[in-house]
Amino acid sequence: MTGRDAARRIEFETDGETLYVRDDIESERLTLRFDREPDPQPAITDLFPVPVDRAVSFEAESISVPSYSSVTINESDGEFVAMLTEDLSLPRGAYCFDITGTTKVFVRAVDVSIEATEMAGEDPVEITFDRPTTITVGGRSLHTRPEATITVPDDPKALMTAVSALGSSIAEWSPERSWPTLRGYPPRIERGDELHVPDHLSIPDTGIEIAVPPTYADIYRIAPLAYYLGAAVVPGAEPEIRLDTGYVEPLPSEGPALEERVSELLRTTLFLDSLVRTEGYVPSDRYEYEQVGPDLPFYPPKLADRSVSEQLMEYLEVDPEILEPYAPPWPTWAVLRPGPAGAELLSHLAHLVAPIRVRGSALDEKREDDGVDVNAPTPDRPLALATSPYFPVDGGVPSPDDEPLPSGVSVLSPAGYENLLSRDRPVEGEARVAFLVDSDERADAVRRAMSEPAPPDGVGAWEVRERPSREAVVDVVSDPAIDLLYCSLPTDGSRIVLADGVVDLAMVERASVGTIFERAGTVTPATGSVAAGSVGSVAIDGTLDASRIRSLVGLLASATPLAASVALARVQEASGVRLAGDPGVVIAWSNHTQQQIYFQIRSLSHSRYDTTYTSILSTRARVGGECNILLGNKRNKIELIGTSQRNTISLSLTDVIEAIADRNTLVDLNGRIVFESDGLTEADIEQSAREALADDTDPNDVLDVEPFTRPDGE
Questions:
Q1: Does residue 648 register a pLDDT over 80?
Q2: Do the beta carbons of residue 209 and residue 242 sit within 8 Å?
Q3: In this predicted structure, what is the pLDDT of residue 632?
Q4: Which of 11, 308, 356, 376 is least surrounded by Cβ atoms within 10 Å, i.e. has the fewest?
Q5: Where are the beta strands (DSSP E) in 477-623?
Q6: Contact yes or no for 116/88 (Cβ under 8 A)
Q7: Contact at 8 Å (CB) between 320 and 362?
Q8: DSSP string across 325-373
Q9: CB of 66 within 8 A of CB of 78?
Q10: Is 178 helix (H, G, I), strand (E, B) or coil?
Q11: Residue 458 carries which DSSP code?
């Protein structure tokens, strides 16, 4: 996308001494106040060390930032200086303030000394220069939703053009695109009568082509790689990658082998890009760099300014097995049918850089017995499936034609992703939960689980309704204030069955953000809930005991992704379970962090623990982001989100209690999910250790992500 085209995303508006930086994609604006009325004049975006959609310049002596989530200071060339965690004075120099709020704003000033106040609660950040000076304000859209829609007819060659334009959302074609914040949401794809690519979208000019036979199956398989490489997708007799250097990389022609190679190339390219960027916009001292750097045939930072083709040439020389132990898993693996109906999922899956497999029959076939067109997916014939590394499916790659669908799969639909884009979700700690149960005994058990000693973290309010009437169920199911619905009433397809009638989810104006159905038998209640507006839903074959209900609800309300919540609550140990919606969807927002850190702590003695930790990827914490893990007095090096590691370290009882109290962490202590609201004392933890040490069995790892072992003391 050219600078002129990208400028459409950001608008600058003034009102007296206030400048509003408006993000047109997000329909949000960030406010900056100055000591005088700004007179914005167009400025070149290349003044900034990071991608900027649009910029203006004017004179000012002070800036007030009333609302923000973070403010950091860099030198004008991008070198990190400080985060405003305290009041700060800076000597004369050239600086760039990085402000994150409802959109992304950068403020550049040169040849000034600075006084700045700390980020403190709801107080504004005040920035004062030593003299009036020309400042430049740049804005970049957060781009968390599509900015345009591409229409495609049912023609694979037309779809190739659409897939070629998905990369128009990526802010720049350097290894920095491995940061998820620089990979904007690709444009939607919708089926229509003729091909239409909006004029302001452009196919990236990276010098790369991916050729495949013009079939839906092969286009789907290579779509995420084409998006990430900015490749033009063209017809070819055999699959291959063509670089403008003249090099051609053959790809397997057989479907599953092509899928495997594409996912391998995705992992290799994104992971190595993340190493090349370690001296880039956000310098980082990465653990993975130490482990794989000596085995690479090149010095990663030296590739930063090379073309995408030249970088890929170097990456192709790397043995993928060297990287595999350190590269995070993909949070979503998609399985699509081979017909045109799956095209509308491609932009959503590309946004997650989710590998795609193709299985089953096309929905667009005519049934030979009656000639009925079966374009539309049904509960018995879902359009697509997904699997999660945190919640594995037995039996290999599932197929949308499987009857029944195996436990562990998620059913995908365009509606689920559109709900994710349009729904407001509760903030962690404020989620309102409703339980519908069919007996007094069940109601009492749920009430005890939710109240003793206190509601699980994340839940702000809850209610239980036993043996409700049809009218009462309609009220609860349709209540916009209910964020999470747990239904233990019988279901029949998408209908909740009651003594005085049924409630059909298909007739509900808008279902709760998240829903859970017991005694479902099939995934149909969950898919019906997503069709009615939920972002994610769980369908459980049987029933759960009260402790598992508490864990599952508490995890979902604490901003833990859907599949990871089901896995950590050990739902599959009690019953078959299927999901609807992306397995990485988050029901509630966290204001503290994008990713959750899961600690699995096993007592080896009263003061020594085997500790596995995993930073959990999701639709919000996407692959390519980084985190820093702190446990006890030990801070690890920065790592990619999604990694899993095992350490045997000494922790005090206080360390364990602090881990449980940390709002960014989830703790599994000797096989039990514990919340801060459980109020565990040192005596409770000692008792847990005694019981664990007396038990000969060792609880299995819950999140099925293979950890790599970090030596003690690192």
A1: no
A2: yes
A3: 62
A4: 376
A5: 484-487, 491-492, 495-498, 501-504, 514-517, 536-540, 577-580, 596-603, 608-616
A6: yes
A7: no
A8: TTSPPPS-EEEE-SSGGGGGGHHHHHHTT--EEE-S--TTPBPTTT--B
A9: no
A10: helix
A11: T
Q: What are phi and psi of 349, to 5 degrees?
A: -70, -35
Residue 624: exposure state from Cβ atoms within 10 A (0-12, 13-18, ≥19):
buried
DSSP label of 646 = E
Q: Are 116 and 124 in contact (CB under 8 A)?
A: no
DSSP 58-114: EEEEEEEE-S-SEEEEEETTS-EEEESSS-EEEEEEEEEEEEESSSEEEEEEEEEEE
CA distance 274 to 214: 32
User: Is the backbone peptide bond immediately before 329 cis, with ω within 30 degrees of 0?
Assistant: no
Instruction: Give me 612's structure tokens.
Output: 């596995």
- The DSSP call for residue 638 is B
User: Considering only 336-340, 373-377, 541-545, 683-687, which range has the smallest mean pLDDT?
Assistant: 373-377
HEC readout, 427-441: ECCCEEEEEEECCHH
Q: Count of CB atoms within 10 A of residue 694's CB?
A: 7
SS3 content of the chain, % helix, strand, coil (to 5): 25, 30, 40
Chain centroid to CA 394: 24
pLDDT at 364 over 70: no
pLDDT of residue 383: 96
**Cβ count within 10 A of residue 72:** 17
Task: State mean pLDDT over 67-79.
Answer: 87
Secondary structure element (H or E) that encloses residue 459, with its range:
strand 459-466
DSSP string, 312-325: HHHHTTS-HHHHTT
pTM above 0.90, yes or no: yes
Structure tokens of 410?
């998620």
CA distance linking residue 258 with residue 251, whole number of Å: 6
The alpha helices in 507-561, defined as continuous H runs, are 524-531, 546-557
Dist CA 390 CA 702 (whole Å): 8
**% of the chain beyond a pLDDT of 70:** 93
